[in-house]
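hiii so um. not sure if this is the right channel but i have a protein structure encoded as tokens and i wanna go backwards to a sequence. like what aa goes where. can anyone help
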């Protein structure tokens, strides 16, 4: 399992986003997340307790500006500044202000670069987070399924009142300014639950949710790194291609991460 530096990491070559500079608004010694996904490359929440506080808004801006200035002076290209890291970025209490700082710095040093947020969507109903996500060029929100049982066993929301129907409505409220990201995989969980969400029983209602949300793009992908649950398997290329084709038939642009 890995942990990301904080608050800045990279740049790296992202398989979905290009040359990406990471912004991790969570501590570098642990994980703070509103999900506890069994496929998370950072590990389970219980084994990744953070002892440090979240980095402050001024410190994040200071570090980001320093890195962007260095990269610009050295002529290093940049496609995207990406909020991800050790947990849910939008849970930072000052996420809106951090986003404002980031957009301002992007405009100053790399005006052609995009700002992306990788989020599980659990905080997107909050007005401040909603406003911040509207500022992102790529508002990328997770929706692995519409099955509450699957979400409970695989994504494992920390809040007991997580409601996927409410989350879908929040996603719809972005009026198309949203990219849906979905993990497809096979295998079984630690407790023996079948996690294969590539079949029609999962894909068909998920596509109906896409029709409700009306995202401008859909990103589907599968396991790429070590997972805390060792019995998970990658979805096959054939399975991903078949799902991609169904998404395109439904009228949505779709990219695949094998």
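sure thing!! here u go:
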């Amino acid at each position: 399992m890995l942990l990301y530096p904080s608050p800045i990491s990279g740049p790296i070559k992202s398989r979905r986003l290009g040359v990406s500079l990471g912004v991790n608004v969570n501590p570098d010694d642990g994980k703070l997340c509103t999900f506890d996904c069994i496929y998370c490359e950072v590990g389970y929440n219980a084994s990744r307790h953070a002892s440090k506080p979240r980095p402050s808004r001024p410190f994040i801006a200071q570090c980001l500006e320093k890195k962007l200035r260095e990269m610009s002076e050295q002529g290093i290209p940049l496609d995207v500044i990406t909020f991800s890291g050790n947990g849910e970025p939008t849970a930072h209490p000052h996420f809106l202000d951090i986003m404002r700082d980031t957009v301002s710095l992007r405009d100053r040093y790399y005006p052609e670069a995009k700002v992306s947020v990788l989020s599980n969507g659990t905080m997107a109903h909050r007005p401040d987070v909603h406003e911040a996500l509207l500022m992102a060029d790529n508002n990328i929100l997770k929706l692995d399924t519409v099955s509450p049982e699957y979400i409970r066993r695989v994504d494992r929301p920390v809040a007991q009142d997580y409601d996927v129907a409410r989350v879908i409505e929040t996603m719809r409220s972005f009026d198309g300014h949203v990219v849906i990201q979905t993990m497809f995989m096979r295998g079984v969980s630690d407790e023996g639950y079948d996690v294969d969400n590539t079949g029609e029983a999962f894909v068909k209602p998920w596509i109906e949710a896409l029709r409700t949300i009306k995202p401008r793009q859909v990103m589907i992908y599968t396991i790429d790194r070590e997972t805390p649950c060792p019995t998970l398997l990658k979805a096959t290329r054939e399975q991903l291609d078949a799902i991609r084709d169904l998404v395109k038939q439904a009228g949505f642009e779709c990219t695949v991460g094998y």
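oh and The first helix runs from residue 57 to 73.
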